[in-house]
User: Which sequence fits this backbone?
């Protein structure tokens, strides 16, 4: 079964599957979905081609060739269990994680909430993951030939003053497996993590990571790009300061954006006041605005990977037209399944504006 056929099959069946999944606790449904996909990808009876993509629209970003502009954002496959199965759905790149040096269980449950009328999710997962060593072991065995991003963070009990050490560990361990490494300073679900986005804290951390990357590049004769993921809740001046900083220290891309702590778009909805990061349709406009502001300030100095509230092909196109070079989905994928992949790839394939 070719990759496109697999995507079409899952797109046709997902509306029925979703009814059952959405009747379950969100986190249990998430684990069941990934478990089923892992069973399929690991089964000797698996008939799909793990090496296929959707419509080929190659684009060079960060010195890497992406077979199309659509990727899967970090957070869905935190432990890198299903890269081959997810990749066969047609993604040009997949970002796994966030991964920390040591395994950690994350925040207490419940910590994942659907806001169905808004096609949104609130999560306060807290970087629950099996640890980067465990994930890298699996990633070395992947068949998926697309671009692989590894998203790294710090352990919850590592003080911000020592955070650089955790990020250096993540970079070193991911280096020979990842095609790019994403630095996550913007999750709202690890206490005080977003303070690392302040320029005074961010500069020394990124300078040390870039210096370490350059040493690793010499050692391995392979240069791995570094991307940094930012929050959507930053003031305009802060965005400009960070953009200047990213260029100055030698970053390779900006991922915009992570989840929002704002709740103005979900006022009155069940679970709307839960703490954590809000994703999905309510963050669409805010994310696109941040992309546009970054692009206005950066120009062609750094590429932008646009993520946040992409629920249809037009949303993806809007982010590309705002200045993104690539896009990623997550929450929209939970609500629409692989039909969203078809929608986006077909929209981009027929768009004269990119």
Assistant:
């Amino acid at each position: 079964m070719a990759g496109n056929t697999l995507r079409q099959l899952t797109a046709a069946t997902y509306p029925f599957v979703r009814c059952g999944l959405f009747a379950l606790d969100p986190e249990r449904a998430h684990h069941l979905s990934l478990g089923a996909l892992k069973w399929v990808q690991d089964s000797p009876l698996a008939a799909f081609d793990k090496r296929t993509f959707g419509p080929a629209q190659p684009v060079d970003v960060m010195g890497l060739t992406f077979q199309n502009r659509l990727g899967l954002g970090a957070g869905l496959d935190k432990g890198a269990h299903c890269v081959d199965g997810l990749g066969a759905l047609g993604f040009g790149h997949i970002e796994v994680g966030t991964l920390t040096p040591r395994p950690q269980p994350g925040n207490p449950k419940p910590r994942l909430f659907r806001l169905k009328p808004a096609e949104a999710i609130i999560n306060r997962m807290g970087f629950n993951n099996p640890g980067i060593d465990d994930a890298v072991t699996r990633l070395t065995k992947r068949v998926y030939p697309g671009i692989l991003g590894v998203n790294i963070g710090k352990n919850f009990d590592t003080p911000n003053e020592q955070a650089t050490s955790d990020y250096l560990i993540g970079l070193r361990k991911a280096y020979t497996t990842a095609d790019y490494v994403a630095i996550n300073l913007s999750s709202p679900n690890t206490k005080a993590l977003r303070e690392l986005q302040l320029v005074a804290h961010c500069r020394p951390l990124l300078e040390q990571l870039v210096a370490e990357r350059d040493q690793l590049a010499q050692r391995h004769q392979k240069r791995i790009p570094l991307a940094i993921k930012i929050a959507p809740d930053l003031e305009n001046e802060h965005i400009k300061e960070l953009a200047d900083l990213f260029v100055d220290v030698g970053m390779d891309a900006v991922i915009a954006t992570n989840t929002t702590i704002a709740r103005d778009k979900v006022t009155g909805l069940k679970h709307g006041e839960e703490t954590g990061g809000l994703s999905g349709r309510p963050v669409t406009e805010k994310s696109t605005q941040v992309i546009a502001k970054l692009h206005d300030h950066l120009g062609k100095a750094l590429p932008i990977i646009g993520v946040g509230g992409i629920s249809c092909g037009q949303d993806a196109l809007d982010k590309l037209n705002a200045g993104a070079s690539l896009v990623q989905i997550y929450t929209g994928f939970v609500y629409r399944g692989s039909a969203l992949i078809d929608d986006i790839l077909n929209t981009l394939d027929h768009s004269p504006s990119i």
Observations:
- The longest helix spans residues 199-220.
- The mean pLDDT is 92.
- Residues 162 and 260 are 25 Å apart (CA to CA).
- The radius of gyration is 19 Å.
